[in-house]
Amino acid sequence: MTSTANDIRLGADIGGTFTDIVVDVRGTIFSTKILTNYAAPEQAILDGIEIVVRDAGITLADLDIVIHGTTLATNALIERRGAKTTLVTTEGFRDVIEMRTENRFEQYDLNLKLPPPLIPREHRYTVKGRIGADGQELQPLDEAALDEIADSIAAGGFGAVAIGFIHSYMDPVHERRAREILARKLDIPISISAEVSPQMREFERFNTVCANAYVRPQMADYLVRLQVRLKEMGANCPVFMIHSGGGLISVETASEFPVRLVESGPAGGAIFAADVARRFDLASVVSYDMGGTTAKICLIEDHSPRTARTFEVARTYRFCKGSGMPISIPVIEMIEIGAGGGSIAWVDAMGRIQTGPESAGSEPGPACYGRGGSRPAITDADLVLGKLDPDNFAGGAIRLDTPASEQAITRDVGTRLSLDSVSAAFGICEVVDENMANAARVHAVENGKNISDNVMIAFGGAAPLHAARLCEKLGVEQCLVPQGAGVGSAIGFLKAPFGYEALASKLMRLSRFDASEVNALLDGLKTTAESFVRAGTDGAIIREITAFMRYAGQGWEIPVPLPDRAFKPGDEVGVKDAFRDNYARFFGRAIDGLDGLEIEIVTWSVKAQDVRPAPARHAITMGTRTVAASQTRGVFDPTTGTVQISAIIERADLSPGDRISGPAVIVERETSTVVTTLFDAVLQSDGSILLTRKGVQA
Length: 698
Fold this sequence. Notes:
Layout: E1 8-14, E2 18-25, E3 28-35, H1 41-56, E4 65-70, H2 72-78, E5 85-90, H3 96-99, E6 124-127, E7 130-131, E8 137-139, H4 143-155, E9 160-164, H5 173-183, E10 190-192, H6 193-196, H7 202-232, E11 239-242, E12 248-250, H8 251-256, H9 264-279, E13 284-290, E14 295-301, E15 304-305, E16 307-308, E17 311-313, E18 325-327, E19 331-332, E20 335-337, E21 343-347, E22 353-359, H10 378-384, H11 402-417, H12 421-446, E23 455-459, H13 463-474, E24 478-481, H14 488-495, E25 499-509, H15 515-534, E26 541-551, E27 558-562, H16 572-587, E28 599-610, E29 625-626, E30 631-637, E31 642-650, E32 658-661, E33 664-667, E34 672-675, E35 679-683, E36 689-693
Parallel strand pairs: 1-4, 4-11, 5-6, 5-9, 9-10, 13-23, 23-24, 29-32, 31-33
Antiparallel strand pairs: 1-2, 2-3, 7-8, 11-12, 13-14, 14-15, 14-20, 16-19, 17-18, 21-22, 24-36, 25-28, 26-27, 26-28, 30-31, 32-35, 33-34, 35-36
């Protein structure tokens, strides 16, 4: 198929609390939010689609493409609700996924508990056979033993198989042969690490293939159900999934490699923020996505989100790198914490207010939802502080129970700390805002950036409620709340390119640079990446070539962009210069003056994607027309520590250039933007709201 700007595109984002549906009918957006259905996630999508197509005046048959992102794979890993899975690995490497890297992520915790491996030891099988680090076969594969292992797996009632052999990224012949042998007797999905994550470092690679196998049956079943239900309702268009790297892939690819979907929803949000940054030509942006379950923060430079090759899910220690489950796939780099509207507030043994990571989700939801939830959540605190209108939440679809919020907050927080409900609610919001501010600072520092140098872009159902206060804490002077912010990730899906990143590890020192060998490797990666892109479009494709390089002896690499062309003898000089320039950019200076210090390439990457139309450019306006509100209500202001009479203004009633002086609340169907006393708000020409600190000029 060929994707065009005139397509009617529908995006569906399943979150932990809400499922967001957006349809773009040739430039006009229609959207809705539906509480996520845990028992049948596809049902919330179908219910939401019925609403938006009705509002848009179209039928499901008019849809040209459906783009879907989901947290189902992530939740299955976090909650350990995947298939019964076995790992077949090289003899002597059975315990790699349990031993991890032997690093202590919390050095002074004497009772440190490592996350348990996804596959218990009794479900792991080993087989003789060895590929060396140079790709040569050192020991033949024991095929007779594999035949016996297949019998054991069949008798064990397993639902999926993961195969991870040592050094298979150099030569996958043993893994592929093992899959052939096992498939003769097994009718269950088999994942091999050479296809899921062909990268160096066995712990990360083995864990990634285990995670892929673990969620594969569940995700494949879900995606089949979704496609069948859509066709039954009259939608004959193709369905594509957004993957963790921010591109679109076919449902068939997603079913085979579901681990690529682990960060699909947040990736859509980063693409949404990058599109806004491009629209206003903002070079340094921090995106802030706060939904019902988590908050995500991502740095966007020169209109592109930062990316990485590995990330962690299910961290057991907040902010502690190494305490989670490593997934070795291309991903948009961000920090994610359990701080959403549904995050539960509680008081710890030391009398401190804590929030999350446990979430009320959509079932039973915060106390104010009236769906059986009795514990106080962030949404309850926002309601008690006056940020939310109980009669106009989610466009009036959900009536909020303020007395229930007050009762829950008083019982679980206020009484323990001798605070009234308003003071306790303020304490809850201050804690969650401080947690998010700390996460943003950590993320910026880890990337060598100063967080206050960025413009914030806030979206997600809860982010506009907290954005101004977060800017106060971070020293950020301007924040954009785009149109459609409440369903920002789903809108981001519609702007995502058909794209795929193919990687392969092949250790090569620059002193032994072999241009023909490099070209052969890159040609294979280009073919792989473009084949996935061609599943969705036959339009023009652009490619990005990246080498991940280091000084010999270092433990990790840095990305070095390289030209997309065939290499020739002598090009290692240019590659070395590019590495030194990027190394200096990362660490302040390159390492010079050490005789014999080698530079080596560890991994190659080819990212291919189709060319997306550039958004219309807009200039920031500071506004001159002051708007007076016809409605007011009391909203607690964190700066003064008192309830302030605040203007209540419908976003739809504003015109570009209108300026609102805080305190105020700008309301719309999917969210509300709180303007604190330190900020003013100005409506931009594209419909975005600019929160700007009082006294700051354009």
